[in-house]
User: Fold these one by one.
Assistant:
Number 1:
Amino acid sequence: MAMSEPTSKPFEFPVRVYYEDTDAQGVVYYANYFRFMERARTEWLQSLGIDMVQLQDEERHIFVLGASPVGVGRVISLSGNLLGPIRPPVTPLRPHQST
């Protein structure tokens, strides 16, 4: 699998907030931040030349959320935009053992 070299520059992925992402007050529903992070992670991996389908099918690697100490720094409303640096920590896990 060809992979480009990581850079020291943080990856940025803009996200536009749609009506479906918000609650009755037009504020982003908290669980949707995880959806935004997943989209950003997928785009980040693709920018590095990592094919997630190939990882899953050929190498049997998948990505899981082990813990999530998430704090939202500001409220995002309808038609808002999210753009922030992505600095994902990558923690290698041991291979899954089938029982």
Number 2:
Amino acid sequence: MIAGLVSTAVLAFTALLDGQVTMDALVENALQIEIGGSVTTGHFSADGSYSDSAGESGSWSWDSGQLCLFLGDDVTRCSALPDNKALGDRWSIETPDGAPVTRTIVAG
């Protein structure tokens, strides 16, 4: 019984930390997003504000490995944020319609 409770607590704590290292790297740097031949660079400030090179701005939140952007006109974009990413790291995801998206943490 105690072993089960400890195991559950460890899993819950680990879930809370998912993406934290990556989020710290994004606040210290910037996120370059490549999709369909377009490149946009997003900046995440420690105060929770967000802006990018495409002219979008708003706020961001991170919770249990999920990064959400809150942009004007009730636009919210959320996606999973992998853990342990740092400056120079690159990873790929797909949009809901299957288009490839490449994300890279860049200086900035």
Number 3:
Amino acid sequence: MTGGGGGERRERRAHLTLKCCVCWQDVLKTNLGPKGTMKMLVSGAGDVKITKDGNVLLHEMQIQHPTASLIARASTAQVMKNKVK
């Protein structure tokens, strides 16, 4: 194994993770406020959900990226914890 290859892979992974988080931010920030836009989610079976709720988006979307999935699960768990109080 060469000494320089691992650093480059880590840098690419970090860049991809950051890009993923910025994309999530872009999707969710358009839901906020009175001018927030509705999002349409279509399942693999063809079921359609239209929502403006960020929690529903995070919970219902099929997220492939591991870090994005972790962020979504943590966010929805926090919302559920706040609803129980």
Number 4:
Amino acid sequence: MPLRVWRTDEVTPLSPHPNDPAPDLPRPPAGTGMEFLITFTLTVPPGVAAQAVQDAKAAEAQRTRDLAGQGHLLRVWTLPGAGRALGLYQARARPRCRRSCGRSPCQAG
């Protein structure tokens, strides 16, 4: 049976994200770790003050710069849909990726 019968492809357009790391940041050598694609959806609960949202987004931007500077965050793209993003991370193993990423400022408790 041909492969095309078993497989369905879905193309998702990627757009620039304001927190995408600069391309000139030092990157770990290829093959030195596992790469992880992590999707994010930012949903602001009703009633949250605009200043709190701005502060959380500023802290999130700083966290992405820190992770990029450490070589853990390689890229960030905006996905279709409100508040959706895709990040490309690199770590030696999945537990290391979780420790490296930690809890982001916009992550729910």
